[in-house]
Write a structure and sequence with these properties.
The protein is mainly α. It contains 21 helices and 7 strands. α5 packs antiparallel against α6, α19 packs across α20 and α20 crosses α21. The radius of gyration is 31 Å and the shape is elongated. The N and C termini lie far apart (62 Å).
Length: 527
């Protein structure tokens, strides 16, 4: 994988530089970039990229890959024990006493930035934009000629705007106070975290009072815009977390809310769904690589079926003997959860396994300069809504849902009406377990899959169900989204640990005041 990446990078740099100047690399330039004092080498690299050539790009790439040696006062590119003259490209012998070139962190950063600068002259607009952004983050006065040259020939307005920002960021370090003030004003128009960081760094070292005032004014101008992005980002993160909690809690709303079974193995049923997704991914990678982007569609029914089957076996083999004894169901399912975790460790190993996002779930939508909505999170939010609607329809509008509600509300009367209560119990528990499997499938797209996956969510899932009101789907939705958003906003204010503690304290106080949860059971079904 690394060799492939390096080869692609080599080809890219070579192609990009065909559009550059015809000035050829000289032996003196190559030696200056390879050997000597770090300051002199940095200056030589900056000078070389002002008038780049294909040989210059190839030599810089070799420096980045530690493939350069020095012998007899000349720099050589050495690949696979073969020497290449960086000036002519001809193959040359490698002397026995050739010395390796050691690049420190500063030099490596300079070389990488130089390679990014060379990309400014390529034909690919995406890569030119990425190079302009990279130069904005790492401003250096030595790159001004390179930026001026790129600005002079750039035709894309968006890229030109980014290059102007890179130039302004570079001029923040100018000796002329007027240029520093103009640069601060230009950067204030781009409210991004990177430009805010640049201005903050400059404020700490600025000595001129007028320039410092201009920097502070620029920071105040962009703070308001960035604050909105941060608030909206926290809200989206809360909704995303709430949608995950909703998926996890929906299955528990049936097994615990409707059936009264304290299922401590619910998290492990999610884990089974996640590992089922991992297995389907492996099958598609091996046998259907061309259709890999659709493996997740095939994984959904398998994740549901695998978890539902395990849940049905669990209900028929253990839980049907324990109805009406919640403490015993808790102990029994806790023991089963340990068995399932150990079984997964035996089959797949104790280490986490990686599940890749399909191409259509990679990337995101940039709404503001500091707010990007990832596609995988958006898909999971939509998926949670779809599962909620499907479950609501199944419980409220179908014959199976009618039987489930009838058995949970009044088992003796339902049995007298001819309902096979044992069968309905199994089907209801399998349904809740299958939804847990769907939650595991979704979770595999936002994190690693491991034997302990379920342990991270089981407590939160129970809190959502209890807070929303036992057996109440609407309450589950409100509780999941409310806890998700509250948790994310508190994290930004107090940190992750204190946020968890605050949410737990809130739930305890709320349950003390309202034991039935947000939505209480009404009518003859209420105890």
């Amino acid at each position: 994988m690394l060799r492939c990446f390096l080869a692609m990078r080599w080809c890219l740099v070579s192609l990009l530089c065909l559009a550059g100047s015809a000035h050829a690399l000289t032996a003196e330039q190559a030696l200056a970039m390879a050997a000597g004092d770090t300051d002199d080498r940095v200056a030589a690299v900056q000078q070389a990229v002002v008038e780049p050539s294909e040989r210059t790009a190839a030599f810089l790439q070799a420096l980045a890959e530690d493939a350069v040696k020095v012998a007899d006062g000349k720099a050589l590119i050495v690949r696979d024990d073969k020497g290449i003259d960086p000036v002519t490209g001809a193959e040359v012998p490698v002397p026995v006493d050739a010395e390796d070139i050691i690049n420190n962190n500063r030099m490596r950063g300079e070389i990488d930035t130089a390679l990014a600068g060379l990309a400014l002259f390529g034909k690919d607009e995406t890569r030119r934009m990425a190079a302009a952004k990279a130069l904005t983050k790492e401003p250096d006065a030595g790159r001004l000629p390179l930026l001026d040259k790129a600005l002079a020939q750039e035709t894309n307005d968006k890229i030109k705007t980014q290059l102007e920002l890179a130039r302004a960021a570079t001029l923040l370090g100018s000796d002329d106070p007027a240029q520093r003030i103009a640069a601060a004003q230009a950067l204030s128009l781009s409210a991004t975290p990177d430009t805010r960081l640049l201005l903050n760094e400059r404020v700490t070292v600025e000595e001129d009072a007028k320039v410092k005032a201009a920097l502070q004014a620029a920071l105040r101008a962009m703070e308001g815009q960035l604050a909105w992005g941060e608030r909206l980002g926290a809200a989206f993160s809360g909704i995303s977390l709430g949608s995950i909690l909703l998926l996890v809690a929906l299955g528990l709303a049936i097994t615990y809310g409707l059936m009264g079974v304290i299922n401590m193995a619910h998290g492990e049923l999610m884990m089974i769904g996640a590992y089922a997704t991992y297995v389907v991914q492996g099958i598609f990678q091996k046998y259907f690589p061309g259709a890999f982007d659709w493996y997740l569609v095939a994984a959904l029914p398998l994740a549901f079926g695998a978890s539902a089957a395990v849940g049905a076996v669990l209900e028929r083999g253990v839980l049907r003997f324990l109805y009406g004894r919640p403490l015993e169901t808790l102990l029994a399912t806790w023991g089963i959860s340990l068995v399932l975790m150990q079984l997964v460790r035996t089959i797949f190993g104790a280490q986490n396994v990686g599940v890749e996002n399909p191409a259509w779930m990679s990337g995101g939508v940039q709404v503001l300069s500091n707010l990007t909505l990832p596609y995988n999170r958006l898909v999971i939010i939509g998926f949670a809504i779809a599962v909620l609607l499907g479950m609501g329809y199944l419980i409220g509008r179908t014959r199976l849902g009618l039987f489930v509600r009838g058995v949970t509300q009044n088992r003796p009367i339902a049995s007298c009406m001819g309902v096979n209560t044992a069968r309905i119990d199994t089907m209801a528990f399998a349904l809740g377990s299958g939804i847990a499997g769907l939650a595991g499938c979704a979770l595999s797209q936002v994190g690693n899959v491991g034997p302990d996956l379920g342990q991270s969510y089981i407590v939160d899932a129970f809190m959502v169900v209890v807070l929303g009101g036992v057996g109440q789907l609407a309450g589950t939705v409100y509780a999941a989204l409310g806890l998700g958003i509250l948790n994310k906003f508190l994290e930004g204010w107090a940190g992750a640990v204190l946020a968890k503690i605050a949410v737990l304290v809130f739930i305890i106080i709320f349950i003390q005041k309202r034991p039935q949860g947000i939505f209480a059971v009404k009518g003859r079904t209420a105890d």
